[in-house]
Amino acid sequence: MAKLIVECEEEGFDVSPLEQYAAADIDSDVPLAAELVFTDEEGIRALNAKERGKDAVTDVLSFPNLDGILGRPIRRAEFPFDADEEGNLFLGSIVICRARAEEQAEEYGHSLRRELYYLAVHGLCHLLGYDHEQEADKALMREREERILAAMGIGREA
Length: 158
Hints:
By secondary structure, the protein is an alpha/beta fold. It has a 4-stranded mixed β-sheet.
């Protein structure tokens, strides 16, 4: 079981459920770290345009730092230059647009809390190598997301 540290400066957002459940089944010999940042519509639009060539507001962007880790044990020796100052292996960054999350929570009929945690879990899955470009990959990623959210006690009605 891997230890996960999520750095987030957003006041009022509790990262402890993510830290407890998002990497519970990951085999790692080193603590893992991720950065979670919240931004506004203009901030995420600019980032999406710069990094992905898409001039549009989106809900979440993920920037994985490690390649080839999906379904594999994560070993410090394989990533000798990717540790942070505390010795944690840096998985990458997640950026969430709070305004878009609010719109989606209303659109999908669930709480903002559920939507924010869903987007954070979705982003963490990307950092761990999951993707949703192909249907089989999408199903695997969705199953993981729902399993983590269920372990966190966050259902669709939450």
